[in-house]
Predict the 3D structure of the following.
Amino acid sequence: MTIYVPADAAARALGSDEVAAAVAREAEARGISLRLVRNGTRGMIWLEPLVEIEPEGGIRTAFGPLTAADVPALFDAPESHPKALGRVEDMDWFKSQTRLTFARVGLIDPLDLDAYRAHGGLAGLATARAMEPAAVVQQVTDSGLRGRGGAGFPTGIKWNTVLKAQAAQKYIVCNADEGDSGTFADRMLMEGDPFCLIEGMAIAGHAVGADRGYVYIRSEYPDAIRIMRAAMDLARRAGILGPVFDMEVRVGAGAYVCGEETSLLNSLEGKRGVVRAKPPLPALEGLFGKPTVVNNVISLASVPVILAEGAAFYRDFGIGRSRGTMPLQLAGNIARPGLYECAFGLTLDRIVNEIGGGSATGRPVKAVQVGGPLGAYFPPALFDTPFGYEEFGAKDGLIGHAGIVVFDDSADMLGMARFAMEFCAVESCGKCTPCRIGATRGVETLDRIAAGDPAGLPLLTDLCETMRLGSLCALGGFTPYPVMSAVAHFPDEFVRSREAAE
Amino acid sequence: MTDKDATQGIVAEVIAAHSGQDGPLLPMLHDIQSALGHVPEIAVPMLADALRTTTAEIYGVLTFYHDFKRAPQGRHVLRLCRAESCQAMGAAANNDAIMQALNLGWHDTTPDGALTLEPVYCLGLCACSPSAMLDERPMGRVRPETIAAAVAGLR
C-alpha cells in the first residue's frame, strides 16, 4: 500500500507533517507495511492536507482535509471515512483543468526520477537533443509561449537572440524570485516537480548553446531551495546534468526588486540588486556580460511538454495571442483557493465565482487584484474580461504571473492604494527618482486624500503618470496600476469630505 | 583563541569554501549569517580583501538586502505576512493582535533574545492566508491563538 501525504509548503502550513507522522505511527502500530510518499500538492489547497491511499493494484483515492485525529479511521474503514473524496481525477474541480505544465505535480514523489520518467518526463529533452538548436528555438517560437513571469514577451524570440549572439560563454538564468502576493505557481512547481524545471533549462541550454544555468530562488522558499538542490544532485548522478549542461541554485536575500530580470542579474553577480538600463538586452549582455536567457520558472517548465508533444499541440490551447495554458493562482478571500491550470480565455467571473466559489467569508466580492502587487484592481463590472494578456491590457490591467487575489466588501480601497505605494517605497532599489521618491510622496498624498484634501487627487494622478513614464522598471512603472485602478473603479472612497475625516 | 579569532576563522572558512564560484558574495553572506546569526563588522574588510573590492562595496550589498543583519537577532524568527492576499483575509488586525500579545513591534526581539518579529511580503502561502513562518516552519490560516501556541515553547 502507498499513502501520499503532500509535503508542499502550503500543505505543511496546514498540518501535513503531523498527518504524515500519524500515518507512519498508525501503520507501525498495526504492523502494516506501507510506502509513505511525500508528494507535491494537487492544488486544491482548501482540501489540504489531502491524503491519497493506493492499495496494491487498487485505485488511488483521496481524503481531506485531514487532521492527525482523522488518521486511525483511515485504516479502520476507508470506504466509509467522512472525509473521503473519491479519485482526485474524478473531482469536478480537478477534472475541468488542462494540466500540461503541472501534469505531474502532486501525482508523483518529486524526487523519484523513475516516476518522473514513467509519467512522460525527459521525453522533451530527448527530442530536443536530437534536433538542431535552431529547430528547438523554432518549436518554442511556434508554440506561442510567452513569458509567464508577467512581461509576456515571446520566449522563442528571446531564445533566438541568444542563439544568434556570438560568445564563448552563454547562460540560462531561471527567475524563481516569485515575490508577488497571490502567486505560488513557481514554488509549487519546484517543490512538486523539480525535474520538470531542470529538463526545461537543459532544453534551453541546448537550444541557445549555453552550458551553465542558475536558478535564483527567493529566500522565503526554503523547501523549494532544498528540493531543487536535491533534484539537481540526482539529475547529475543520472547523467542528465553534467559537462553538456550543469546548473546551481542561488538564494536571494529578501529584495522584491530582484524579480526584475536586470536586478536579478546584478544580484547573481554579487552586487546590489539595482535595475540596469536596457539596452543592452540581457539576451546580448546579461550575466557577467554574456548572452543570457532569463526566463521565469513556469516559462521554462512549459518547454518540456512543448518539445514532447509538438508546438501545434500547445498552441491549440488559448485565445488570441495568449497561447497554451496558464496556472491560475486563486488566493485571498476565496472559498476554493489553489492552483488551477487551464487554457487562456476563461472570464474572470468564471474563475472567481465558479472555480473559486466566490468569497471565503460569504460576503459579496468587491474587487480582484490580478497580477500581483503591481496589478490592477478589477471590480465585478469588469468580470466579463477573458483571461489573456491583451484582453486584460485593454481594460488597463495586466495578468502578470496570474495571481488572483479576491477581496470582499470589507476591503478599504484607499488603504490598498496606500499599501501599494508603501510597498514600492520599501522595495524600491533607489536607482531612479520617480520610483524612489515618487512612492514616498504617493503615501503622503494618499494620506492627504484620506484627510479630505481636495487637491490630493489631481496630484496623485500626476504623480502616477510620472512614475509610469519615468521609471526604469516595472516596480515604479506599474505601481500606478493598483493605485489608479482603485481610484477609477472606487472613486467614492477617494473623495472623503473633511467633515467625515474630522 | 578569542571570540574575535573564532569569528575570523569562520569567515575565512566561508570565503575559502566559495572561492571557486562566480559572483560569490551573496552565497558568502548567507553562509556567514547562517553560521553566526548575523554578518559581523569584522567580516566586511575580509570580504573586500578576498573579492578585491572596497569595504564600501561590501557595505552597499550588505545593507541593500532585507535578509542580511548586522547585529544578532533572536534565536528564533517569526515572520508575519503583510501582503495583499493575507490582508484580504484580515492580516492587518491579526498581526496587530499578535504583536500586542507578544509585546513586540516589527524588527523587535524579546528581552530574553528568544524571538525576533519580522514583516514579510509574501511567503507563497496565499492559498491559506493569512500566513506566517516560524524559522523554516510554514503556517497557514494563522490566528493569534495559533501563533501564541507555536511560540510558547521557544524560550
Observations:
- The mean pLDDT of chain A is 96.
- Chain A touches chain B through 61 residues (CB under 8 Å).
- Residues 413-493 of chain A form a domain with the de novo design (two linked rop proteins) fold (CATH 1.20.1440.230).
- Residues 17 and 44 of chain A are 17 Å apart (CA to CA).
